[in-house]
Design brief:
It is built from 39 helices and 25 strands. It has 979 residues and is α/β, with parallel strands linked by helices. A hairpin with a 5-residue loop joins β8 and β9. The protein starts with 35 loop residues before the first helix and ends in a 7-residue tail after the last helix.
């Protein structure tokens, strides 16, 4: 064991704990039992089988209120693996559940036996016929698919609020729809063809002209059974009429019986049945969608009404005017949304009765947009709108930022309202539909029912389609609270069906929590047909038992998860999973949600349990060490949970007092450390990569991998010992070259000025000269210590840089321009909690400007571009996302290149200062998709604005990345320039 390896018990929760009834029992502490573990390892190989108890726990939770611990998790790479898993399950009498993003809200992605992760190796999109169609793999997020289609002016029909995280497989399997899809743009209506694997292992491509012939040979009984059910349904006129009527409004409860009416062959019937089947009929391995036009001319308003009734009455009028979306938010929803960044704070003062409609029109051109706006303006004049707080305008806008803010508030309904629930309570998200003409009555009845059963009343939804959502929060550890939930569900389901003839699930699918009420909505005849359909397709019941169909009247009460209190920063988490696609480590070890899920399981355990010991043993590497600390999870989370900050706190907890003292000492003596680092890099050029790789590998084994960086061949040579000479007299800004740019030089083979030289030159060229202080050596943005959780060292450097910056800028009179985005973020924001009171006052007087903003906003308007390179690919860093200056990166690049591309899979590179040298596997995993996209073609320039991220991308792609400001200097340099 390395000398300084931290002890796992340093991360043991210190809070007083009461063991939970739903904790993982100690007999499962060794994970997957034998012989299941060995048999699957032999069948699939060790890389595809997750068997540790920590693996099982992190997959036990999803966005639903349920929690089921699987016996094993398998990660197949291709259809052969899927077929092998299904064959094994048949032979051993086991059960299989498929899980992709885990954003399902009703427990349909959870299994108690073999859980199959179909996200990791199943992403990809092929755009067909100039965007008219798209062939998409099931692990692809809606957001990623639409990014590829946008270049062709197209998009997918389904648009769920979880588009940032939910995947195509889940969207089709649940027939999820969203804000605009309604009953005409959902998966059932826009899927052209499917490829899927049946429970028997038979693969069906419904787009293959020979599919029916092949299926008849492979599965004659299946074909006969489907056609017999079709004939039986069509022979019953009353049943046929009922089926058609049920789908006039949104409905995802049960199986799509209209597939028997819409399809004329077994393959066509299966194509319809697979949509909304929730993984109970087979595995969808590929989907071909018919896409829709992307109308880019958008006009949106958030309109405030005095009551639900008044708002609901306006909905059909906006529908008639051509609105693509009419979204409803009641007063409680609006007030809870203030927790979402960007939502006006005065919404917290809105009267309880207030209701808002988010109305959006989309048009293909200016004329269409103007026509919509005229119709909308006339309609608004006739409405009884209110403006109870100052931020309310009740006006339509074209401003993208304002529109984005409206939608962010609306889409955050579940997490914003759920995040403000009482600590320790479980959240259930319900979803139902009524005929749109009954919307107001349904809202009033629902709110009354919530109050009657003691639940906080809040409602939102897709008003245009009569589709409403509401939340219930209760303590699943208290039998009385579970009884209260059960009583509410009984009354709610009867209300929806008997009073409104509505759908108990409009777009979230049946899952586990509506399965007991399926017959209430559909009646015994249709429900029995669904059971018979399941028997025809999956006669052995291998796939997803107790999902969709369950005869247990209390099935929705089984497996409700408790939510133990955890660290304050993470406690509001409802485990929605929105954070996962942005997380650099989610394909390697754990995601932010899983880090919190594992922590909650520790809190369920009695202190010293065998399960707790196993979880702690794995948590150090899986959660803490391999967290990049980039906090992009905070940006994706609607309530801003920063799991990266929690991991940094855990790193701090693991430090010994001696380690903290040493870290503080390096901060105090950083001038010497910086000089030594530059000399070491220079010496490395003479020594060569091989010896250094061996030396650092030995040191990492002897000391600790998370303390000693590994030498990488991509590490550049040393920077020049002296910075460019500048003058304070006449300077427009103070230029702060980050320590990384004072230690490391540019990419190998680069011809031209260094980054500091380029910034000085291009600023002077624009008539806005900058001054580099003589005493920048020994200062730093403090990120080195902050990212590792060294609080004492962080405090030393944070206060030093602020005091220095205040002096350099003459008390904040000049802006401080920083040439690395992570350092800009550090000085502008991350140092603040570590400052003394006096230095916080100084910090408030500073203007910290990222070099991208300086170049785009201050320099470009004054520069003449003399030459452009052909093409440039950009790497926007996570710090740029936090600073919201990705567009400035694009702006500067577009001034320098004829073609500028930001990869659809661009994300945090996870190099994170030196974390990519401590755990190079983290950067390899984080950059794999982006690197593949970048290397699919050649570019003339590879640009970013953060040296360590550039090194990370060099390693990932084999290309040479450098700062866009160096390219700007080249583009504007007078005279002849040789690249």
């Amino acid at each position: 064991m390395p000398l300084l390896e931290p002890k796992p018990e340093t991360l043991r929760p210190g809070a007083v704990r009461t063991p939970s009834l739903d904790r993982v029992p100690d007999q499962q502490s060794q994970g997957t039992p034998e012989p299941l573990r060995s048999e699957l390892l032999d069948l699939l190989g060790p890389e595809k089988v997750l068997w540790k108890v920590s693996d099982l726990v992190k997959y036990a939770s999803d966005a639903s209120p349920y929690r089921f611990v699987p016996q094993v998790v398998v990660v197949p790479e291709d259809i052969d693996d899927i077929s092998a898993i299904l064959s094994y399950a048949h032979g051993k009498g086991r059960e299989v559940v498929f899980r992709a993003a885990g954003t399902s809200l009703n427990g349909q992605a959870q299994g108690e036996d073999i859980l199959v992760d179909v996200r990791h190796h199943w992403a990809g999109i092929e755009v067909l016929d100039d965007g008219a169609q798209a062939r998409i793999r099931p692990g692809t997020t809606i957001l990623r698919a639409n990014a590829a289609l946008a270049r062709h002016g197209r998009l997918l029909g389904p648009d769920p609020a979880s588009a940032i995280a939910c995947t195509i497989g889940g969207v089709v399997a649940n027939n999820a729809s969203g804000m605009t899809a309604g009953t005409t743009r959902n998966s059932y209506r826009t899927v052209s063809s499917l490829t899927f694997v049946l429970p028997s292992g038979t693969v069906v491509d419904t787009g293959d002209p020979a599919a029916d012939e092949d299926l008849a040979r492979a599965e004659p009984r299946l074909c006969e059974g489907l056609m017999a059910l079709k004939a039986e349904i069509e022979a019953d006129a009353e049943l046929t009429a009922r089926i058609r009527a049920k789908y006039e409004i949104k409905n995802t409860n049960g199986y799509r019986l209209d597939a028997f009416l819409d399809g004329s062959t077994p393959v066509q019937i299966l194509r319809g049945l697979m949509v909304g089947s929730e993984g109970t009929f087979g595995f969808i391995s590929e989907v071909v969608f018919d896409t829709l036009p992307l109308d880019r001319r958008i006009s949106t308003a958030l309109l405030f009404f005095p009551s639900l009734t008044a708002a609901a009455a306006a909905v059909p009028r906006f529908n008639d005017a051509g609105a693509i979306a009419v979204e409803l938010m009641d007063g409680n929803t609006l007030r809870a949304s203030v927790s979402v960044q960007g939502v006006p704070a005065d919404w917290a003062e809105l009267p309880k009765e207030t209701t808002a409609l988010l109305v959006e029109f989309r048009a293909p051109d200016e004329a269409g947009q103007e026509a919509y706006e005229r119709a909308a303006a006339t309609l608004v004049e006739e409405l009884d709108l209110i403006a109870p707080v100052a931020s309310v305008t009740n006006e339509f806008t074209r401003e993208a930022k304002v529109i984005s803010g409206y939608w962010k508030a609306r889409k955050a309904f579940v997490t914003a309202v759920g995040g403000s629930r009482p600590s320790g309570t479980t959240l259930i998200t319900e979803d139902f539909a009524v005929p749109p003409s009954r919307l107001a009555d349904a809202c009033e009845a629902l709110l009354g029912l919530q109050a009657e059963h003691g639940f906080d009343a809040a409602v939102a939804g897709h008003a245009a389609h009569g589709n409403l959502h509401f939340l219930l929060a209760f303590d699943a550890a208290k039998p009385s609270d579970v009884d209260r939930y059960a009583a509410f569900m009984d009354d709610f389901c009867r209300l929806t069906v008997e009073r409104f003839d509505g759908s108990l699930k409009a777009e979230h699918a049946t899952g586990r929590n509506i399965a007991p009420f399926l017959e209430l909505e559909w009646g015994p005849k249709a429900t029995e047909l669904m059971w018979r359909t399941k028997q025809v397709i999956d006669p052995d019941g291998v796939l997803a038992p107790r999902i969709v169909l369950d005869r247990d009247p209390k099935a929705h009460l089984r497996g409700l998860k408790t939510i133990p209190k955890v660290e304050l920063v993470a406690d509001p988490c409802i485990e929605c999973g929105f954070c996962e696609p942005t997380c650099p480590s989610h394909d390697l070890t754990t995601s932010p949600r899983q880090r919190i899920v594992l922590r909650r399981e520790m809190m369920r355990q009695p202190g010293g349990s065998r399960v707790e010991a196993q979880l702690l043993d794995a948590y150090g590497y899986d959660a803490v060490d391999t967290c990049a600390g980039d906090s992009t999870c905070k940006l994706a989370c609607p309530v801003g949970i920063d799991t990266g900050a929690m991991m940094k706190d855990f790193r701090h907890q693991r430090h010994s007092p001696r380690e903290e003292r040493i870290a503080a000492l390096t901060a105090k003596n950083f001038k010497a450390v910086e000089a030594a680092a530059r000399l070491a890099v220079a010496a490395a050029e003479r020594i060569g990569d091989g010896p250094l790789e061996k030396l650092t590998a030995f040191a990492r084994k002897a000391v600790r991998p998370d303390l000693v960086p590994e030498w990488l061949p991509e590490i550049p040579g040393a920077a020049a010992r002296k910075l460019p000479r500048t003058s304070r007299v006449g300077a427009s800004a103070v230029y702060y070259p980050a320590c990384v740019n004072r230690i490391f030089g540019g990419p190998e083979g680069h011809r031209g000025p260094s980054l500091p030289q380029a910034v000085v030159a291009v600023s002077a060229r624009a008539g806005k000269p900058v001054w580099i202080p003589d005493d920048v050596a020994g200062t730093c943005c403090s990120t080195i210590w902050h990212s590792k959780g060294y609080d004492a060292g962080n405090a030393v450097m944070a206060n030093r840089i602020v005091e220095a910056a205040w002096g350099w800028t003459a008390g904040g009179r000049l802006p401080l321009v920083v040439d690395a985005s992570s350092c800009t973020l550090g000085i502008a924001h991350e140092v603040v909690p570590y400052l003394t009171d006096d230095n916080r006052e100084l910090h408030r007087e500073l203007t910290i400007v990222d070099s991208l903003v300086w170049a785009a906003d201050e320099l470009l308007p004054e520069l003449t571009v003399l030459r452009k390179t052909g093409s440039a690919v950009l790497h926007p860093t996570c710090s740029m996302q936090h600073l919201d200056d990705v567009e400035q990166l694009r702006t500067v690049a577009e001034a320098c290149a004829e073609e500028v591309v930001i990869p659809d899979d661009a994300g945090c590179c996870a190099f994170a200062g030196d974390r990519g040298m401590l755990h190079k596997e983290l950067t390899a995993s984080a950059t794999a998709k982006e690197a593949a996209e970048v290397n699919a073609r050649e570019y003339d320039a590879y640009l970013s604005a953060n040296r360590m991220c550039e090194i990370g991308m060099d390693r990932a792609t084999g290309r040479s990345y450098y700062s866009v400001l160096m390219e700007l200097e080249r583009a504007t340099r007078p005279g002849t320039v040789v690249r």
